[in-house]
Amino acid sequence: MKKPEISRPTLGRIPLYLKYLRSLPPNTESISATAIAAGLGLGDVQVRKDLGILCGSGKPKTGYVRLELIESLESYLECKNGGAVIVGGGQLGKALLDYRGFETFGISVLAAFDKRTAKAESSAKGKPILPVETLPSFCENYEVNLGIIAVPAESAQEACNLLYDSGIRAMWCFAPCQLYKPADAVIQYENLALSLAHLKMQVNQL
Q1: Mind giving me the DSSP string for 42-76?
Q2: Containing structural domain, residue 140
Q3: In whole angstroms, what is the distance from residue 140 CA to residue 128 CA?
Q4: Are residues 52 and 101 in the same domain?
């Protein structure tokens, strides 16, 4: 069954729900949305709405079966068929490669690839940075399904093409540009400059 579309804020609260549910005593069989909201200091309406979208409605009086709720929430953080790779081994690429926060959402960033890398290197936390020509074979061996583009705008389309030709259909692009993509590919753009400009505007309104 296809999962419903969920908003970023709701997705961001899933790890909070999971951490709280896992911290409960093992003999806790059921729990209500109201109890979860109180335990996390969140609004009761918000938690009911989130869980309704993610897992459906709880049972009257008893709420949710705790272990079933955990399993249902965990399914949204699965990263099937391997993990993610980064094209670009510069400062941004290395920072993304070593960032531990992706693991909270079930995403494992396996390696970065850079055309300036002639032989295998390691990041500060020991993750591989490999020659870009080895990307296709790496993706085949590790069944990668997510690609992160962390190169300058002028190199982004080339990186996109390489990822697509390597079998990757989902990409996250940090380059400030618009890419051509085939109909069966999905690209999420992350414009850091635009985010900073938006933050500055909010500060100016304080």
Answers
A1: --HHHHHHHHHHHH-PPBTTTBEEHHHHHHHHHGG
A2: 84-197
A3: 16
A4: no
pLDDT tens per residue across span 84-121: 999 999 999 999 999 988 887 778 899 999 999 999 99
Instruction: Report if residue 3 sits inside a domain.
Output: no
Distance CA 12, CA 101 (A): 11
pLDDT tens digits, residue range 23-56? Answer: 999 899 999 999 999 999 999 999 999 999 888 8
| Closest-CA residue to 128 (of 114, 115, 116) | 114
| pTM across the whole model | 0.74
Q: Pick from 77, 95, 130: which residue ends a domain?
A: 77
Question: Cα dist. 148→102, 161, 171, 191 in Å?
Answer: 12, 12, 6, 13
DSSP 134: G
CB 17 within 8 A of CB 53: no
Quote the tokens at residue 180. Answer: 């051509």
Please tell me what DSSP assigns to residue 105.
G
Residue 95 forms part of a structural domain: yes
User: What is the distance between the alpha carbons of residues 33 and 2, in angstroms, rounded to a whole number?
Assistant: 24
pLDDT of residue 81: 45
90 shares its domain with 72: no
| Tokens linked to 95 | 């920072």
